[in-house]
Each structure stands twice: as structure tokens, then as C-alpha cells.
Amino acid sequence: MYPRDQNILFMLPFSVPFPPTYTPDHLFYSPGLSHKDLHLLTSSGVALMFSSALFTAFGLLALGIAFKRRRMRARLPPGPPGLFLLGNLRDMPHDKPHWLTYEAWAEKFGDIVYVEVLGRSMVILNSLAAVTELLEKRSASYSDRPPMPMANDLMGWHWDMVHMRYSNWWRIHRKTFHQSFQSRAVPAYYPIQMKATRTLLQQLSINPTGFVDHIRHHAGNVILNVVYGYELQSENDPYVHLAHEAMKGLNQAVHPGSFFVDFLPALRYLPSWFPGAGFKRKAKIWAKSSLALRDIPFENLKTSIAAGTAIPSFVADNLEKLRKQTPPADEEIIKNCAGIAYLAGSDTTVSLILVWVLAMTLNPEVQARARAEVDAVIGDRLPDFSDRERSSFPYIQAMLQETMRWAPVTPLAIPHMNMVDDEYNGYHIPAGTTVIGNIHAILHDATMFPEPHEFKPERFLSQDGEKSPLRPEAVAFGFGRRICPGRDLALNSAWIVIVSILKTYIIDKAVDSNGNYIVPKVEFSPGTVSWVQSITLLYNNDNV
Ligand code: HEM
Questions:
Q1: How far is ligand 1, taken at its centre, from the CA of residue 341, in Å?
Q2: Picking from 101-110, 259-268, 379-388, 492-501, which range would have the lowest pLDDT averaged per residue?
Q3: 185 C-alpha vs ligand 1 centroid, how far in Å?
Q4: Residue 484, annotated ligand binder?
Q5: What is the per-residue pLDDT across 57-73, written as a single tens digit (0 to 9) for each?
Q6: Which of 151, 321, 349, 369 is the most exposed place for a label (fewest CB within 10 A)?
Q7: By alpha-carbon position, which residue is closest to atom 35 of ligand 1?
Q8: What's the pTM?
């Protein structure tokens, strides 16, 4: 249908938009103060200003004392020395990927590093041994999330299961999610993934230069279809718009240090009109889009169900189950799980596929070997999931593992928090410490993965008598009880997209005006989800 012998040549320089980076300015300025707020501050009277300053001074003093006492009291893991009051605020990376700074610290201080920011302690685990011991084996104590007063209490994200505190309320969400996304359940979504992949191939054949948008459309189409039975519009989709609006605020709020109220939770009780309480006014505006994202698609689907026009989906099926339950279970749980699936599952899958595209651009010999395997198994037609019954596709599998290892999509996972005082290797980890599993460092550990920055799928092809290295998916989706529940769906999407593109396209570098190849840079953005910064591609079967 889309033969590789279509002699087409496209130059595709692009850069992928990624969530805003955070500068130190954000950090110091971000208690929500805008220029207007500062003006207000001057005009609203000396008394208010004085009480506000006093409030902040007391807060900072308390933090400083707590910081000093904690440092003196216990044998904390090593880390960069902090300043009185601020702790390690100034050491925290802001404008470059955090994992680079954390890896530099790991080299200096070892596989467990301690930092403290404005009284909040944080531990970074840089080795497989440390994450296995703490986040996996001691998962019962390490599965909480740090409180996020700005996002959860003020911006209405309390319904977001990803950042929910470890509780019965989270457990029931997790169970509901798991039932529909566990490995046994996801083959039910093959038809949706197949249909979306055929649409992707069609879109690529019409406009290969728009491949980033097409890959995004594919991921959105799969998840919205699975969750709401909703077919994504080709352009200006209202649900994509809702998610985009909601992400604007969330991206800022989940970044540690963006809002002072996250360090001094008492600030959330300030009235919105209070000088310096600009964060409360921002939160009020953002809360609308957070709730709209969750409620609008859900209510629309309920209208379709009532009209008898809804097709099966996560929400429709779960509402049906709920109707039969006595006493009826909580509808809100289904609404919450559905709302978060698009946010958690869309960008992550897109990022994984784009990392693969970059790897293929830079490693034509890997691409050729993978394509040969697809051709040998599938022959002269388009792939589908039944092909996996004919072959285990060892090279494709190894290539997918290497893609997850080479540039992990979520290099630092999502922060966990421990609930009890703990000891590890003779170090004290105070209860309430934010614990980061450094996926990037583990997957670039040269003792497990020699030449870690090279893209080498062969390392996952087990040779006779050789011990195969750690499978990246064992850490790339996080840890313990909070491990990503959407991983099987994501890996299936990535697999069908990869084999389908290999079957129909050749990915190559672009050429400049002098006819020279442009070698794309291997650069990734900071943020929870890391993005390939720029790729230049050329589809050209002359290069085969
Ligand atoms: C390549 C794709 C993906 C990657 C790399 C990824 C990665 C992650 C990571 C690292 C976490 C945090 C785990 C931890 O705290 O230790 C997570 C959590 C989560 N992911 Fe994914 N994810 C992907 C796709 C998906 C998809 C497709 C869905 C939805 C269908 C999804 C839904 C979730 C949810 C709901 C959580 C929160 C789990 C909890 O806190 O209990 N993810 N993911």
C-alpha cells in the first residue's frame, strides 16, 4: 500500500515543542508575584506589607532552624553542602536536564545523594542496587508522593492519580486502572491501535514532513478511543485543546520549587487579595482547566450513553459495571482514572517513538537489520499484532529495549516519598523525604552497559552462556507499587508503529543546500517527560 520504492525525498528540520524550562527567576519570583502584584504591594499599606514580611521571615527562620537541626542530628547521606535557610536551593538545576546535575553529584558523592531545599529533604538514588532496595523491596514505605499544595490543594489536581498521596483513595484508583490496562486486558485494544496506525501511515504518505504531528495524533487517537471511545479530529480537536490548557498550569506546578507555597504550605491560607498571594489568583484560573479536562469528556460520554450512541470504552464499560453494583461504586473514580490516562499516556508514548526515530536517523545499519527482520517474518503486506504469534522479533525487541535505555522518556520517573524514618547503608533517610529514582543514571551505568551513550541493540541479544543485562523496561516505567500501569499499552503502541514504519518508510538524514547530510544533535529537554530537541530527517529510498 505504501511501497518503500516510492522515490520520495523530504527534508524535515524541526524542533519538538516541550514544556517550558524553569529559570532561577521562576524560583525566586514564583510565589505568584507578578508586576501588578508588586504594585499592589506598594499601594496596599504599610501594615499589610509589614505583616506579610513578618510572616515570611518567621517561616524562613523556622526552616533555617529545622535545616540546621536536621543536619546536626542524623547521619544523612552525602551531598553538596547547603546554605543556612536556603539549603541547596542554589545548587538545584533549572535550565538544563536535572539528571545531568544529579549524575555529576553521583560521581562525587556516590549512589545516594542528599540535598535539602528550604527545609524539604530530597534523596537521589543513582544505582540499581539503591532503587531495588528502597523503591522496590521497601515499596510499602516508599510509595507516597510529596505533597504539592499548589497543584493539589489550590489548582484542583487532587483528582490526578499520578500525584495522589499513598492512601486507600489512591489504591482504589490504581485497582480500577489496573483492571483495564494490565497485560491481560490490553490485547482488547489491538483493533484501536491498528486503526490508528493505518491512519498514521496514510498521514505520512500525504505529508511526511508533518510526522511529529502525525505521531502525536496517533497517540492521542489511541488513548482517547480506549478511554472514551472518542475518535480524534484531524485538526483542532477540542479534547486536545482541553489537555493543552490543563498542562499549561500543571507543568509549572509540578516542578519542585516553582511555587513558594509548596515549601511553606501555610501560605495557602492567605486570602487571594493579600499582597504576594498572586499564586492563589493563578491557581483559581488554572483550576478551571484542570476540572474541565476531567469533566467535559466524561459528561459528553454520559450523554452519548444515554442516547444509546456510545461505543465500548474504559469509561462506558466501567459505568456499566458500576450500574450493576450494589451499593453503586463511586463514579468519580472512573472519571478521575479516565481524565489522567490522556495526560499520562499521550506525551510519553510520543516521546518514546520520537527517540526511536532519532536513533534510526543516526544508525542506518540498525534500521536496515530491523527492517530485514520485519520483511522476513511479514513478507509483502502490512504488519499487525498477529505477527507476534509467528515470531518474537528478537532484533526489534532488542532495538525497543535499547531505545528505552539510550534516552529514557522519564529520566527521573515521578518523585516518591518515604513515610517512615529509615536507614540505608548506614545513612539516615528522614520520613517525608522526596526520593528520586534516577532512571537515566541506572540505564547509563557503564558497568552494566558498556559504551552507554552508543545505540547498540545487540547488547540485548543474549549470546549462549552470557548473562543478559538488565532489561530497561524493568526501571524505565518507574518503581514498586507506583510503577506505570499503562506500560503494556504504551509498548504495544510503540511496537506496531515501529514495525509499520519500518515496513513502509526509510528514515534518513536530511541534506543541506550543498547536498551534505545534516547530522541531528542528540539533545533532550529537561522536564518530567524528556523530548528529543531536534531531528533532521530525510525519507529517501535511494539510500537503501
Ligand atoms: C513510554 C510510555 C510511558 C512511560 C515511559 C511512562 C512512565 C511512567 C513513570 C516513570 C511513572 C512513575 C512511576 C513511579 O512513580 O515510580 C508513570 C506513572 C503512571 N503512568 Fe506511565 N508511562 C508511559 C505510558 C503511560 C500510558 C500509556 C498510560 C495510560 C494508559 C500511563 C499511565 C500512568 C499512570 C496512571 C501513572 C501513575 C501511577 C501511580 O502513581 O500509581 N503511562 N509512568
A1: 9
A2: 259-268
A3: 17
A4: yes
A5: 555 555 555 555 555 55
A6: 321
A7: 162
A8: 0.86
> What separation in Å is there between the alpha carbon of 477 and the centre of ligand 1?
6
Residue 229: pLDDT over 50: yes
| Composition of the chain by helix, strand, coil, percent to 5 | 55, 10, 35
The complex's ipTM works out to 0.99
Helix (H) or strand (E) holding 72: helix 46-73
Q: How far is the CA of 117 from the centre of ligand 1 (A)?
A: 26
Pairing of strands 422-424, 427-429: antiparallel
Spatial neighbors of 541 by CB under 8 A, at least 6 apart, are 4, 5, 6, 7, 8, 506
Range with lowest mean pLDDT among 31-35, 156-160, 478-482 = 31-35
Residue 403 lies in a domain: yes
**Does residue 69 lie in a domain region?**
yes
173 lines ligand 1 (CB under 6 A): no
Q: Which atom of ligand 1 is nearest to the CA of 439?
A: 10
The per-residue pLDDT for range 377-404, each reduced to its tens digit, is 999 899 999 999 888 899 999 999 999 9
What is the total count of domains within the chain?
1
The answer to whether residue 544 is domain-embedded is no
Structural domain includes residue 263: yes
Structural domain that includes position 233: 2-539
Least confident of 20-34, 101-115, 479-493: 20-34
For the chain, count helices (H), then strands (E). 18, 8
User: In this structure, what CATH number is given to the domain that contains residue 39?
Assistant: 1.10.630.10
Hey, what amino acid is at 413?
Answer: A
